[in-house]
């Protein structure tokens, strides 16, 4: 997961003139499987330009489907673009079906190794309680 990815970069790499998809074709693919919410071609164009759009879980799931990218990668790109947070994978082996991610403001100290220590401590506490 590249920490400098944004929604704009994810969409503009795959849609637009000379790209894999037109915005209309990407719109046809960008449907949230849970709610049926579909991104319009104009919304996708706005996202590709970096314009402000309302971010919600339906949009992230729809874009994940349309771009054939993992949900967490699209969500991390949205966090980076719209709130300025970098999302990292601290490299922790959690239980099946559990994703561990750490969000931090760019330039914040701590880093991945400190995040790994914290998450490992929490996971150890949870396994002691079970």
* Ends apart, CA distance between termini: 32 Å
In total, the number of domains comes to 2
**Major pleated sheet:** 2 strands, antiparallel
Number of helices: 6
Instruction: Tell me the strand percentage band.
Output: under 5%
- What is the average of the pLDDT values? 81
**Which sequence of SSEs, written as H and E, runs from N to C?**
HHHHHEEH
What is the overall silhouette? globular
Considering DSSP H and I runs of 4 or more, what fraction of the residues is helical?
40-55%
Note poorly predicted spans.
none
Helix/sheet category: mainly alpha
Q: How many runs of DSSP E, i.e. beta strands?
A: 2
Instruction: Describe the strand arrangement of the main beta sheet, using strand numbers.
Output: 1-2
Give the C-alpha Rg: 17 Å
Question: What do you see in this structure?
Answer:
The radius of gyration is 17 Å and the shape is globular. It is mainly alpha-helical. The chain folds into 2 domains: 84 residues; 46 residues. The chain has a two-stranded antiparallel ribbon with strand order 1-2. The protein contains 6 helices and 2 strands, in the order H-H-H-H-H-E-E-H. Helix 1 packs across helix 3, helix 2 crosses helix 3 and helix 2 packs across helix 4.
Comma- or semicolon-separated keywords:
two-stranded antiparallel ribbon; mainly alpha; 5% strand; 2 domains; 130 residues
Topology:
Elements: H1 7-14, H2 23-29, H3 41-49, H4 57-67, H5 71-83, E1 86-88, E2 102-104, H6 111-129
Antiparallel strand pairs: 1-2
Helix pairs in contact: 1-3, 2-3, 2-4, 4-5
